[in-house]
Structures are given as structure tokens and as C-alpha cells.
Amino acid sequence: MSTILLIEQVLNGLQSGIMLFLMAAGLTLIFGVMGLINLAHGSLYMVGAFAAAAVAAATGSFVLALVAALVAAAAAGAIIELVVIRRLYDRDHLDQVLATFALILIFSEGTRWVFGSFPLYLDVPAALSGPVTLPGGILYPAYRLLIIAVGLVIAAGLFALIAKTRIGIQIRAGEADREMIAALGVDISKLYTMVFALGAALAGLAGALVGAIQSVQVGMGEPVLILAFVVIVIGGIGSIKGALVGALLVGLTDTLGSVLLPIFFASFMDQSSATAVGSALATMSIYILMAGVLLFKPTGLFGKA
Amino acid sequence: MISERTVNIFLFALLPVTVLAAWLLDEPFIITLATKAAILALAGVGLNIALGLGGLVSFGHAAFFGLGGYAMGILASHAQSYAPLMEVPFLIEGTKSMPVIWLVALVTSALAALAIGALSLRTSGVYFIMVTLAFGQMLYYFAISWPAYGGEDGLSIYVRNGFPGLNTLDPVQFFLIAFAVLTVGIFLAWRLARSAFGLALSAARQNAERVETVGLGPYRIRLVAFVISGAMTGLAGALFADLNRFVSPTMFSWHLSGELIVFCILGGVGRLYGPVAGAMLYVLLEHVLGGLSAYWHIYLGLLLLLVVLFARGGLIGLLSGREVAHE
Amino acid sequence: MSDLLDIRNLKKSFGALKATDDVSLTLRAGEIHALIGPNGAGKSTLIKQIAGGLRSDAGSVHFAGRDVTPLSTVARARAGLGRTFQISSLAMEYTVLQNVLLGALGQDGGVMRFFRPIMARNDLRDRAMTALTRVGLESHAAKRTADLSHGQRRQLEVAVALTLSPKVFLMDEPMAGLGASGSQRMTGFLDGLRSEAPILLVEHDMDAVFALADRISVLVYGRVIATGTADEIKADPAVREAYLGEEEEA
Fold first, then answer.
1. What pTM was computed for the model?
2. Record's Gene Ontology CC terms (chain B) (predicted)?
3. Chains A and C share 3 or more Cβ pairs within 8 Å
4. Chains sharing 3 or more CB pairs under 8 A with chain B
5. Residue C29's domain is classified under what CATH number?
6. Do the domain assignments include residue C161?
7. Is the pLDDT of residue B39 over 80?
8. Partner-chain residue, chosen from B125, B147, B308, that has the shortest CB–CB distance to A98
9. C159 pLDDT exceeds 90?
10. Do B195 and C121 touch (CB under 8 A)?
11. In this model, does residue B326 exceed pLDDT 50?
12. How far is C118 from chain B (nearest CA, A)?
């Protein structure tokens, strides 16, 4: 296997990892601040992608499509927070899981009803559709590089938001102690709605960005949601840093595993069975990673004991 | 209001009465639906041991349901093609015998539950939910990508497997098999809840520290409960595959895990007959609403939301007028 | 070896706060050793360090001549440490009887029995009912634990510990919420209990402490500032200053 191909795969892994981070960051924030497990986070990812595809089809502008994704997902997030989610903060995890599972059913079928079962396509903007040449003569799609860059910028912004700003202080205080934050005179229910909408917007943005590479379809958020869970288990609940490290680990393991494992097995097996065994094992690789973390650090790499 | 016991007797009798009526009216499809409800109820009764009694919110029970299904599919497909499963180091042949398939399904899913439970139970709360979900998904992807047994397309079994002395192709007789297994499952779950083990398991849900202080290890108790629970759900998976004469990776899907939890909740959490009521209601809704609208999952979602937010005792709670499940 | 429980140099810090700081004390056969101190002195932390459930930063716990420091809560309970909690830690959905049965089951160890109803285990029921009778809760056996009063929950805590037939009792404020007559009754009961197994007693009720304790240790800011008989403690100037607050009140 050539170095160029390897570097390309590492970049692919980074790209999928950084998109996973956008999902996982929202989930982990919502869990950290409100103590809520939100299965419908994947639906918000889907909402973002559909909004982007619809707006792109109507206006032809990719930038407007991204704005639409952010707005639609944030609005959907705020609405479900106001109508359903806030009734769940004091409930046990079972109720949270069920209610948000119900939301998935409603979102998925509702989207299918409005948009039909056929996938939509969101085109990469023309200016970014070609490859760029990286140092060392590696050709890599410009759009994917942009995704990595956007993701990193958002990650930096998120860290800054939490470390430096007023709302960040409130978020950290809310993680530590709900009563304390109430004592600070913060309107908790407004803060919760905002945090939820922020998480939703991140998920929606990820959905739109990835939607331009893959197809936009009902159910697209679910595999990503489960990967984001794996990320959070690895990184530790409530930790943004853990979400970043976990997301990159999962993205790289998943991408490199599916390329490297078949090659590894081909070194001592015939090609077709090596491909079969290798790709079957590759689908399991991130879960094996997760199992390894559970064995040694059940609360995740950056989780509180 | 009706007592919970009366509701239970009514629920238990509902399935065979429905089948009897369907048989008299010559409606084989209704019999199939009742059989499906009985099998899903068995899966739910299994899950409820972990969920209701042990408080373990497993979002990965489809793993065991799917393994049970594939135990049936793999054994029957080898019997169907006359190719042994394995020749080295010893010969294992396929089989079309239900009791043998059930045994294999029980053992396989119990072993999987042991492995998944041993890891997942190192965590608790929301971690446990995510971890079980992830392990279930792992098996789903594995089933899709492993080409030997149909991969994404699944496996078809042409003739339903046999049970000594019965004609399993007759819908009524197959229903009776499924119903008998469900009855045994309910009976065992009932005894379990009242046994020494059940006392400790439920106490571990209510207060793990208390259980530790009397010198009992919650981890071991929960792991055993998880294994029993997974095995019962696995057996249901084998029956489900036999009902459809088909297995595919969708049996592993996390939607199925969610639906199993929904059965337990729709019927009423922590109630012995909760999953039975839930599974029957689900099959009924699927049939009635599914006939009215292709988007019936919206209505299911709304119903579920209403039950979670406003009717925590579930169906049995509504009927018997008691929110809280009692021993 | 008359020291059944021998606690050596236990330390536990939470951040900058030293909850327990080099605590050593012993519990001899047949005695009641009371542990007193103002709120936040580290008494509950110390109980957790002894019973398990909170890993010590340093120091060791020796029980019946054996170092149990590395053992889990479960293993320490099996070895014979019978603990009651400051804030009742009971299975609230269960009846009173079921809670005590759980203790009897823990003592019996036969938890991996899946089929036979626990109520058919007459040996466990007898054991459970005996314990309930001893604390005076026998008439409440069928009551839901959540419906008990605070004081009754304390009694139930003690009853569960009794079913374990422990070698040592660790009791965290068994008198709290009992009321005057209840406290008196519990005092009488604990007085008789010491011959069965010695008691390390954390308690705020000073009348009970002075009536019961063979020895008293005073914990202030995580340190034992004095150990001695009731009279010695009453006379100790450091204790008077730090804890009994004679100076300020006078």
C-alpha cells in the first residue's frame, strides 16, 4: 500500500472523525448540562441535511443551504426542547430514551411523508468540487479538506465558548450544580433551550456538510448517532475534549480499519476471503476499541470517575 | 376498576381466544398475527427481566433476538443444503428440529449476553444504554458484512422446521407451540421475580449500596439476570425466524431493540404481563394503523410519547387503575 | 487479639479538603466506641472508608486480625462488618419484611436460586422476623418501606444489620429522628447488643453517647483530638474548646 493512499485514508478518517465530533459534542453537552440522553439527535442531523438539500435545490446557493441547515436544526431543537424534552429532565433515563425514540419515529416518518422515500442529492459547490494538490503531490478533494477545516474551526470556537464566555461559565456551572446556577440568577430554562438548540445546530450542520458527500435520506442520522454514542463512551460523558479525541479515534479506526484489515488478511489468505473477513472485522473495529476502553476506563478516557 | 390479576388473566386468554375465533372463521392471517404477538411477547418478557426487574435499560436486546434468529437460519440452511456446518475437528450437521435449534439459540444468545453484559455492566446509567446499543449495532453490521449467510439479503428457509409429533406447517399448531413457549417463559419469569435471586436483583435496582452492604455483589447478580434475559429473547428470535422462515440483519437492528423496550413500556413497566399487553397492542396497531397509513410510525411515536409523558403505568396501569406496579 | 477493628492512619482528601487526616482508632470486643464531632468533621467519610465504598488515600483497616484495606464493600460485609447508614439506605419499594429478608439472604449467601419463592424459605423468614422483633418493628412487617417514618427506617436499618450477625457493627447515627422515647429504647437495645458484637457508634445524641460509650473519640477537622472514657472526654480542655463549645456558650 502506497504512502499516498495511506495519507488519503488518514485524511478521510479525520474528515469523518471531525463530523462525528460535531454530533458528539452536542450530545455530550446536552448530557453534561441537562443530564439527558437524546436519541433524537440523529433526527436533527437529518433535518439539517434535508433543509440544506431543499434550499440548495430552490436557490442553488450552498452557503444559503448551510445557513438553512443551521437554522432549521436549531429551530427543530428548540421546539422539541420546549414541547417535549423539558418534561424529561427530571425523569429517569428509561423515559428519556423512550420519549426521544418516539421523536425519532415522528421525525423519520414525517420527513418521509414530506419528502418521499427517495434520497435527495446535495451537490458540492462547483468551486470546491475538484481536488487540490497537497504537499507531496497528493490529490485530495477540496470539499473534504474544507469540511475538516470547518470542523476544526467549530471545535476551537466551542472550546473558546465554554472556556471564555458568559454562557460557557453558565454551562460549566450548570454541569457542576443546578442549584448553584439558579443562585447565580441565571434563567435555567432559557439556558437549557439554548444549549439544546446549539447542540441541534451542530448536528444539523454536520448533516448538511456530510449530505453533500453522501445522499440525503431518511434514517441517515441513525448510524451517525450510534457512532457518536461510541465516541462519547470512549471520550467520557460531558467532556468536549473527550468528544474530540474519541471522534478522531473512531473516525480513524473506522476508515483505516476498512482499508487496512483486508490488506492485512490478504497477506496470508486468498484475496476474496481476505476481503470478506477483513471487512467484516473492520465493521467491528470501533466496537472492539470501545470494549477496550470499557475494560480499562469504564468512565471513558476523559470522564469523571 | 379491575384488579391487575383479572387484567392478566384476560390478556393471557386473549391470544388463544383470538386464534380459536380466527380458526372458526378461517382467517389464517389473524392466526399468524397472534403467533407474531406471542413470539414478540416472549422476547419482551425476556427483556423485562433485565429492564423491569433489574432496572437495566438494555438498548441492545436485538443482538440476542438476531442471534437466536441466525441460530435457526444457519442450522436450517445447512440441513436444507445437506452441507455440514463444520467437519473439522468434529462433524456438526445442520438440523430442522425445533428443540435442537432452540437449545442452540438459547446457548448462543446466553453466551453473547455473558460477553456483552460483562463489559456493559462495568458501566451504569446512560453509559449502559449507549454501550448495549453499540454492541447490538456491532452485530448488525457484522451480519451485513459477513457474506457466508446471505449478508444484507438474509437467509430464506423453505420449509418450517419440525417439532416431534406436530405439524408445524399448520398455523394453529405452530401458534400453540409459540404460545406454550410463551407460557413457560411467563411462568419462569414469575417464579424468578419471587425467588431469592429476584429479591436481590430488584433490590439492586432500588438501591445497589444496600445490596453490597448485606454482602451480595450487584455486578454478578445483574450479569446473571442479563444472561437469562438475553437467552429468553434469543429463543424468541429463533421462533420469530421460524414464523417468517426468513432471517436477515434487520433482526439485529436497533429499531427492534427500541421496539422491545416499547412493548415493556406500552404494557406497563415492571409488570409481568406488561410485555404481553405491549406486544399485542403493537401488533394490533401495526396491522390496523399500517392498513390506514403508510406512515403509521408517526402515530406510534405520538402514542408512545403520550404514554411516557402522561400514562406511566402503561396499558395495564390504565386498565387496573394503578400507576405503580406491585408485587 | 482483643482489637477486633484496628484502623491505622486513614487519610482521605477531596481536593484541598482533608476529610480524614491520619485517623487511628480501635474497637475492642464487647465495647461501644462512640465517635463524636461537629458536622463536617469527617465522621461519615471515616465510616465509608471502614465499610468500603470509599478508597482511602493512605492508611489501613484491619479487621479480626486481617488487613481488609484492599477488599470491596461486599467482601468486607461478608467478613462481618455490619453497617447502618446515616441517611437510610433501604429498598424503598419493598416491604419491611423484604428488606430484612434481603439481609438474611446476604447472610445465607444462597442468592443464585431462581425458582423457589423466597417466602417459602422459612429459615430466612424466621431470621428476618427475629431481627424485626428485636427492634420492635414486627407489627410493621407488611408495610411498604417508603411509608415508614424516619425513626422506623433507622430501626429497620439496624434490623437489617442484625440479620447479618456481624462481628462488628458500624452504626451511623441510629438515633436520628427517633424522638425521646425511641432514643431511650434504642439506647437500651444497643446497650445489650454490645455483648453480641462491639459497636462503632457515630451519634449526635450526647445523652445516648455518654450513657452507652465505653470509650469516646472526638473527631475535629478530620483528626482525632482525644480518645477516652466519657469522664475523660468531658474533662478534656481541648475537647471542651473545640467541640463542646464551653467557652463560647459561657
1. 0.94
2. plasma membrane
3. no
4. A, C
5. 3.40.50.300
6. no
7. yes
8. B308
9. yes
10. no
11. no
12. 5
pLDDT digits (tens, 9 = 90+) for A252-270: 999 999 888 988 888 888 8
CB under 8 Å to B236, separation ≥6 — which residues?
A: B39, B40, B42, B43, B46, B65, B68
Contact: A299, B308; criterion CB under 8 Å: no
Q: What is the pLDDT, as a whole number, of residue A178?
A: 67
Residue pair A78/B267 in contact (Cβ under 8 Å)? The answer is: no
Region A83-106: mean pLDDT is 93
Q: What is the pLDDT of residues C37-84, one digit of tens each?
A: 888 888 989 999 999 989 999 999 999 989 999 999 999 999 999 999
- Tell me, yes or no, if B292 comes closer than 8 A to chain A by beta carbon: no
| Domain contains C115 | no
A–B touching, 3+ CB–CB pairs within 8 Å: yes
- The 3-class secondary structure across chain C, one letter per residue, is CCEEEEEEEEEEEECCEEEEEEEEEEEECCCEEEEECCCCCCHHHHHHHHHCCCCCCEEEEEECCEECCCCCHHHHHHHCEEEECCCCCCCCCCEHHHHHHHHHHHHHCCCCCCCCEHHHCHHHHHHHHHHHHHHCCHHHCCCEHHHCCHHHHHHHHHHHHHHCCCCEEEEECCCCCCHHHHHHHHHHHHHHHCCCCCEEEECCCHHHHHHHCCEEEEEECCEEEEEECHHHHHHCHHHHHHHHCHHHHC
C78 touches chain B (CB under 8 A): yes
Residue C131 included in any domain: no
Decide: C and B in contact? Rule: 3+ Cβ pairs under 8 Å.
Answer: yes
For residue A60, pLDDT over 70 is answered with yes
Q: Which of A102, A276, A294 sits opposite B304 (nearest CB)?
A: A102
The chain C residue lying nearest B228, using CA atoms, is C114
List chains adjacent to chain C, taking adjacency as at least 3 C-beta pairs closer than 8 Å.
Answer: B
Q: Is A216 helix (H, G, I), strand (E, B) or coil?
A: strand
Residue C224: domain span: 3-80+166-249
Q: Which of A237, A294, A297 to mutate to test the interface with B (most CBs of B within 10 A)?
A: A294
* A95 to chain B, closest Cα gap in Å: 6
Is position C48 within any domain? Answer: yes
B189–C contact, CB cutoff 8 A: no
Ordered domains of chain A (ranges, CATH): 3-296 (1.10.3470)
**Partner-chain residue, chosen from B206, B207, B214, that has the shortest CB–CB distance to C106:** B214
The total number of structural domains in chain C stands at: 1
Q: Report all structural domains of chain B as residue ranges with CATH numbers, in order of start.
A: 4-320 (1.10.3470)
